[in-house]
Specification:
The chain is of the alpha/beta class. It has helices at about 65-80, 85-95, 105-125, 130-135, 175-195, 215-230, 265-275, 290-300, 320-325, 335-340, 345-355, 375-380, 395-410, and strands at about 5-15, 20-30, 30-35, 140, 140-145, 145-150, 160-165, 235-240, 245-250, 255, 260, 280-285, 305-310, 330-335, 360-365, 385, 415. It is about 40% helix and about 20% strand. Helix 1 crosses helix 3 (about 105-125), helix 2 packs antiparallel against helix 3 and helix 5 (about 175-195) crosses helix 6. The radius of gyration is 21 Å and the shape is globular.
């Protein structure tokens, strides 16, 4: 069957925050592939450039320039190319842009075409995207379920960005989501009874935007919700600290809940939290610029089995992941396709992480859409872990619901990562 691209078209849609973003259609071999491009609020400085319009429309957040670049520049250039040759297509897109950070055409323009082409090629092959991308895809991920929000994701004063429960004790993905949903229900009752009805409002990723300021209080309340749901023995916990936003580079100190910490003091604080709250994974515990600190925390907490995830540190860039591995900084990467701008580059970043013994956590962005593509991508990678928010709000549940479908499609071949979420390679055999 032909997989030649015959049509490419981009349109504007709205993400879950009401901001414009890009949706792209690619037709190849008569099959339609469609992909939405998510956007982040908490971003690393080395991310590929998301092209926005500036000006007054949508308060500068419009994407008409990116849409024009797809429809007027990229479309005529890629029509006639093979959608099934993803590396060649993505290489051509990068060359067409011609800048290191994809600033001419925009990473949001390039990524929409890249992902939509992959979907079109999978449709031509008659396969779900995860199986099209990888013939042995079968690992269902542990959901990192964000139940309490802070940082840039909310309007509260809680400095750390995400407080997460992980149902590692489940035997299947479906069971894991039942546990997570019941914990969310139980936690809502506790939050409302303790802090009032307004505390049940949610942040960008669906977690409760409580008036809590103290990190320990947030973890205590989260643990109480899990216990109330009856899953204390089957859950462990994770944090996303987004510490770049807590870092004063000039003075080389972090500020958390009004208290200043040196790097060493903050590492010691994390050690206390790990000990007291069964935390097994911490994302961005330190700033993207604090490389020496990353090496130190990896030698300390990483050696004790804690997963230390670089998000702002790595921005899904294979060169930065390799730098981290060479230095001994972090032991896992956050994987967001829009940080790098094409599917192929993101796959190379994941492969770089795996080859160096790093975990790979597939992640959404705060500005998500109903497109569930990362559900297929996490299974295609056999990555074993996904972070896509709370089990509420359509842009979040779309990913979980797609994973239910994949689990059903895989049938007896499906395996849940569980306690092996960081290195599920053996499960894929």
């Amino acid at each position: 069957m032909s997989t030649t691209i015959t049509e490419v078209h981009a349109r504007m849609i709205l993400d879950c925050r009401g901001y414009p973003t890009v949706q792209v259609d690619v037709v190849a071999g008569g099959a339609l592939g469609r992909a939405d491009v998510p956007a982040g609020r908490s971003t690393g400085s080395s991310e590929a450039v998301e092209l926005r319009d500036g000006g007054t429309a949508y308060r500068g957040q419009g994407v008409t320039r990116a849409l024009a670049n797809v429809n007027e520049v990229i479309a005529p250039a890629v029509v006639g190319r093979n959608a099934a040759d993803q590396p060649a297509l993505d290489r051509f897109l990068r060359e067409l842009d011609g800048t290191p950070g994809k600033s001419r055409l925009g990473a949001n323009a390039l990524l929409g075409v890249s992902l939509a082409a992959a979907r079109a090629a999978a449709a031509c092959a008659g396969l779900p995207l995860h199986r099209y991308l990888r013939a042995d895809s079968r690992v269902l991920p542990v959901p990192f379920v964000n139940l309490i929000n802070g940082g840039k994701l909310t309007s509260n004063d809680l400095d750390f960005q995400e407080f997460i429960c992980m149902p590692v004790g489940a035997s299947t993905f479906s069971e894991a989501m039942r546990m997570a949903s019941e914990c969310h229900m139980a936690l809502m009752e506790i939050v409302v009874s303790r802090y009032g009805k307004l505390a049940a409002n949610t942040g960008d990723e669906g977690g409760f935007a409580t008036p809590i300021v103290d990190v320990r209080e947030a973890l205590t309340v989260l643990r109480e919700g899990v216990a109330a749901a009856g899953y204390a023995d089957q859950m462990v916990y994770a944090l996303d600290c987004a510490a770049t936003h807590l870092w004063d580079a000039a003075r080389r100190v972090y500020t958390v809940a009004g208290k200043e910490y040196t790097t060493d003091e903050l590492i010691a604080f994390y050690g206390e939290l790990v000990r007291d709250f069964d935390i097994v994974s911490i994302e961005d515990p330190l700033s993207e610029d604090d490389w020496d600190g990353w090496v130190a925390i990896t030698a300390d907490l990483g050696a004790k089995g804690v997963q230390l995830i670089g998000d702002d540190l790595f921005v899904t860039n294979p060169d930065l992941v390799q730098r981290g591995a060479d230095l001994g900084a972090a032991n896992a990467m956050l994987w967001k396709v829009n940080q790098i701008g094409t599917l192929t580059e993101a796959l190379v970043a994941a492969d770089t992480a795996f080859r160096n013994g790093y975990g790979v956590q597939v992640s959404e962005r705060s500005g998500e859409t109903e497109d569930p593509i990362i559900a297929d991508l996490v299974v295609a990678l056999n990555a074993g872990q996904i972070k896509t928010g709370s089990p509420v709000r359509g842009e979040r549940t779309a990913k979980y619901n797609r994973l239910f479908q994949i689990e059903e499609w895989l049938g007896a071949d499906a395996v849940y990562a569980g306690h092996d979420f960081r290195r599920p390679t053996a499960l894929a055999r």
